[in-house]
Structure formats: C-alpha cells, structure tokens
Amino acid sequence: MVGRVISTKMKSTATVLVERVAMHPLYKKTYVQSKKYLAHDLIGVKDGDLVDIINCKPISRKKNWQIVKVVGKNLAEITEEKLKKEAEKVILEVMPEDRSENSENLDSQNIGISDNQTNRNSDVSGAPSNSEISGKKKSRKKKEAK
User: Fold this and answer.
1) Which run of H or of E encompasses 33?
2) 2-73 sits in which CATH class?
3) pLDDT at 101
4) What are the sequence ranges of the domains in the chain?
5) Region for 128 from its dihedrals, namely left if φ exceeds 0, alpha if ψ lies in -120 to 50, beta otherwise
6) Fewer Cβ atoms within 10 Å of its own Cβ: the N or the C terminal residue of the chain?
C-alpha cells in the first residue's frame, strides 16, 4: 500500500495515512476513505513523504506494518522551495541592489523633522489639552478653599 507520512513523533514509528476511493453500492457516488496505520520506520522518513508499506508480523499492539521504501518526497516543501527561488529571481530583476543607496539618502533627509514639530501639528482642533484642564481645576479648588 502507498500512503503519506503524517507523523514521526514516536521513536522508529511513523503514522501513515492511506487514502482510497470507494463507490457507494446504491447511489454510485465516489468518495475518499482514509485510514491511519502505525508503521515501523527503519529508513528515517519525514512528514509528508509518500511511502510504500507492507504487512508484517506484529511489532507492538498497534504496529503491524513496515515501511519498505520512499516513493516520493514531501511535495509541499519542494514546491515551496521552488516558489521562493523564483520569487528571489523576480525581485532581483525588478529591484536591483542600486536602489538601496537611494533609500538611505531619503532616510537621511527625513531626519531633520523632530518629534515636537509633528506633535504640534497633530492637535488641529484647538481644544484645550488635559494638562490645561487639570490646571484650571486646581486653581478653582484653591479659590474655594480661601
């Protein structure tokens, strides 16, 4: 049987998911049935690998299968690596490394603006700040105390 490795957390054991297509006897609809098998792993497979397993004598209570060979590697990892390499090539074509010098020049020009100037411009409403309001309350309390 051929299945996909979904877990290798146990020592010398891999969980293999075997999927098969079945047809309903009355309605003739096809559907996928899946079953997990614990298989003895002497090869050292990784998650996502396609493996060939055979039935063998019981190794433990639930482990009656052994991995014979790796049929295919993890397709998700392989495609992800290919996509990353292609993306790096495209980025280098679109954005050559000379542009990084221009961005450094822009950063040095923006250093002239200080935080105080930006904070002054942010209060456009003209409403009194919290510090001004609290100052007025204190002065009223002093007047009432006299």
Assistant:
1) strand 30-40
2) mainly beta
3) 56
4) 2-73, 78-109
5) beta
6) C
